[in-house]
Queue: 2 jobs
Job 1
Amino acid sequence: MNQRSFGLGLLFLMMLVWSGCDSGEYGKETKPEPKAESTPMSTAKAPGMTEPAQVEGALMATVGAEGAKENDEGVNHFQQEHWDVAKEHFMKAIAANADLAEAHYNLALALDKLGNHGDATKHFKKALALAPADPKIAGSQILQAHVGG
């Protein structure tokens, strides 16, 4: 009986080993299946939904306008999140051209980022007074939040 149990055990062990092997593919390199493309959740749009709100940024000045060079340099720093440096450039643009709506708007954005909401509101109001028909200024959500529009 002991010999028979040993033989059955050996047979059972061999069956386990064989069932674990695949059909001669052992050792071959297998490449993973390509993953399906998916749309990130932040940009996915459900049917009937409107576009997500875009982050508002600093505005370039009209080419050739007095103060445009300083304003546009400020925009460059604003995009790099150098709020203090951007603020200084926007202030220089306003010193060169007090009627440059984009510079007032941009200065307000920089002041907002720096936590100076009182002065930001003042410059948002000035930008809106100078360019009430400019959709980028008049339609700005952050401007509306400051001026109560």
Job 2
Amino acid sequence: MYTLVKKARFVVALLTIVSLSLLVSCAPGLESLGLVGLAHAKTATIAAPARYSSNNHAPTQKQRTAPYENPRSKGISLSILQATPVVSDTSGYHITINLQATNTALPEGTVQVAINAGYTFVSRTDMQNWAQGQSRIPTLQILGSVKTSSLAAGTSTKVQFDIPADNPALKSIWHWGPKPLSITYYSQNYSRYKSISSFLTRSNVGLHATDAPTMKLTAVMPMLTQTQYSIKSDIPQHIYNIDSLLQTSKNNTHHILQQADLANKHAKLQTIADSNTLQAARLLFLPSAYMQRAGFDISAYADEHNREAYSSAGIAQSVWSAKNSQAIVKNTNNETAPQSYAWQTGGRWTLEALEQAKRNGYDTVLSTDEFDSSASQFALRNGIYDIETPAGNVRVLASQAVLSTLANGNPTDNEAVGEHTRAGRINRLVAQSAFYHMEQPYLPRHILVTFSQHTSVSDIDATMSALEQSPWLSLSDLKSMAQTQQETLPYWKRNNIMRSIPHSSAISAATAQTRRKALNDLSHHRNNTLRFVNHILDYRAATKAITTEGDAQALAKQTAQTRSVLNVKIWKKYVLHLYDSIALHDLVNRSIQKSTESTSTRFTRALLSGIRIIAPHDITAVSETASMPVTISNNYRYPVQVYLSADTHAMEIVTNRKTLVNIPANSETQVTLPLRITTSTHTKVTFVLEDRQHHAFSQPQGTLITSTLQINDKSGTIIIIFAFMLGLLGLWRQFHRKKDPDE
């Protein structure tokens, strides 16, 4: 009987302790009960930070809905500034919390950090609900609490916790993996409180855990930025290496150089680079792989179903092919280039897009979003898919959606308040990867994490540091993942995957319309370029061994080329090659800068303005015939043949309407146009240059012509009238005179 009473008292006492602990966790107003311990902490009051700092990213478009907020929590902001991503048996736990009074003052209170050491998350939904504050998991083990002073509205204070490794709460964790972590503020009078949820991840180091094989993870950082060719007021005539004209902004160059330094810091960080980006940054760097040139959007190309529109714009398939990417690298580095993979830069990978990638030489593509819509419904598996297309098999390396979202500085949901800072996102990322490793049934897994080209270097650095500290992960290279051998799936599984892959690129109608307009503009500019090389350059004159050495005009203009033979056909080839390269970058950049003048526009304007009219000054004619000198200048090293069109806009003054003119290289040719004047008048003659197909290509030039025949015309008229009157008088006298009697 005594034993039963003793057991009953023990059960009652245990239930009382658990109940009080639960109350402390859920309604932290029971500090007076002595259940809250104090941890070593440092506090500092600072001004309120901006809403979105480098560690505090704005929610994405799909996360606009604000979560419900308890009235007692309004005006209170809690965020994680720093935290130990992976806890081992010797690391202890260190976390820094920012407490901010946003719009109302906060009274004195306490910040408390607690965990549930014995809890194991059972599903992804379980973890997501906890992250969003929608789960009632009790956090019974108090890691520490710190008293805070009152805060004025708009100010904040940092609270730092340094939990030693021998802390009882930490040592009570018997199983490795993610654990619920709560961070709570409550005022002394319990009228104000707020709590956010995060994760503490305990590694298997120092625990009696089964040694399971590590999970392979490949993290890929793209080195891609906006680049373009430098075209100013004239066309470079020594363009045998057109990539030397590539440039990018100082900020973009700085970002690329930082990425290269980061890749050297983290040996397992994989890089996939655009060769043009490296050239524009003047960076000698060997990435893990190369992507399609300029990050060309293959999904948009497949959506268009109009190969001719791209070709007429100067963007042939060969421009963004895998072969072209390899050739650029070999020409630059004179060494064997890494493999080329197609990188997702815009629309999602559809079956049509995969087919186009395969036809253009890409056997492997990388997907930056969840390629398989059914992937989140089952236990984690390899992010590797072998897709059969009409052009052949394509291997798709698909990024893991949750991990990649967090790695790129975005919370999994706007209601996951603990993930609004970098440290909070790292907590979730590490915890999520540990959960994936523990998912059953266990199979060898190789997952992919992709960074965005816009992700900050500091975010990537923090992510890689956390992944490197995770002993359940084995960071692998991109080549190994691409070459992973997989068992052939049964027919029904392949059908399921084909139904799950994207059937739409998700490119908006407005974006597609902008792209079509850009293609039309590029096609128009390329037609102008073709007119120049086909109907303006004088190939017959240029086929001779022409040099400007000793030429008087060339010497005077300091453009003489000693012992230089001009090959116009080679220059024609490079002019078209330069334009096609410009067109590719213009199309890619159009979605980034819609308001600026395109480089293709500047290129064609500069190309055609190299041949110009030097119009004469105003002309005064004093006779019925006159001459008008017009000078045509050719700034190119190659002879040209054009038509000079002159229009007087008057019948009284006429001249030759069209005159064929040959202008030697780097020279000026003067054309003398005859004028025929029938009366006194004045008019403006307009000059325009035309190609040999009689299409105008220059800006109109004008000259005023004035005839001074007014006095001569009046005198002649008077004389004629006077002579006519005399004739009439003579006739009258002849018929009316009387005969002399002597006759």
